[in-house]
Design a protein that fits this description.
With 169 residues, the protein is α+β, with helices and mostly antiparallel strands. The protein has one domain. Helices cover 21% and strands 37% of the residues. It has helices at 13-21, 123-139, 153-162; strands at 4-10, 26-30, 40-41, 54-59, 68-71, 76-79, 87-90, 93-95, 100-102, 104-109, 111-114, 117-120, 141-144, 150-152, 165-167. An eight-stranded mixed sheet has the order 3-2-4-7-10-1-14-13.
């Protein structure tokens, strides 16, 4: 079975953006991509990619190894996260009116099957990704909830004071 790694979390946009801005050599890829040219953004939300909550992350060293797949029905490209050296980032969504925060996730597929053969992603990329996950869990996530999801300091303060609901789906 192919291995993967993930962190489910609750954090605000600014917390994630600040964390990412401190990462050296980080490439942030917005989705979807409307031509074959993969562009990076300096920070989350700095360009209109349509979706706004979905990004792919990699280190500049591995950027040239990122592959795209064309989604014919939608007429755009997505990063092939299975085979590419990327971390999937799904941001949390905060609804101020309804007072809920939908859970976010960072996810890494470490291995994959290609024509029935189990393949691992580049060991250098995996070492970088492990470091990224470790930093994320230490700097963003201050505690875990009953579901073992990480909760940031800012979210913990707001939840306790303003009765914000944390939603997992």
């Amino acid at each position: 079975m192919a291995s993967s790694k993930q962190i489910n979390y609750y954090a605000f946009f600014d917390e994630i953006n600040d964390f990412l801005s401190q990462q050296e050599e980080l490439c942030i890829i917005g989705l979807p991509i409307y031509n074959k040219e993969i562009k990076t953004v300096a920070s989350l939300g700095s360009a209109d990619f349509g979706w706004g909550l979905q990004y792919r992350l990699t280190n500049r060293e591995f950027f040239d190894q990122v592959n795209l797949k064309f989604i014919e029905e939608q007429n755009y490209y997505l990063v092939d996260s299975l085979r590419s050296p990327v971390i999937d980032l799904s941001l949390c969504f905060f609804d101020k009116e309804e007072k809920y925060l939908r859970r976010g996730r960072i996810y890494l597929q470490k291995e994959y099957y290609d024509d029935g053969v189990l393949k691992s992603k580049d060991s250098g990329f995996l070492a970088w990704a492990d470091s990224f996950f470790k930093q994320f869990s230490q700097e963003i996530c201050s505690r875990k909830d009953e579901s073992n999801d990480f909760i940031s300091n800012q979210v913990a303060k707001i939840v306790d004071v303003d009765s914000i609901k944390l939603v997992s789906n």
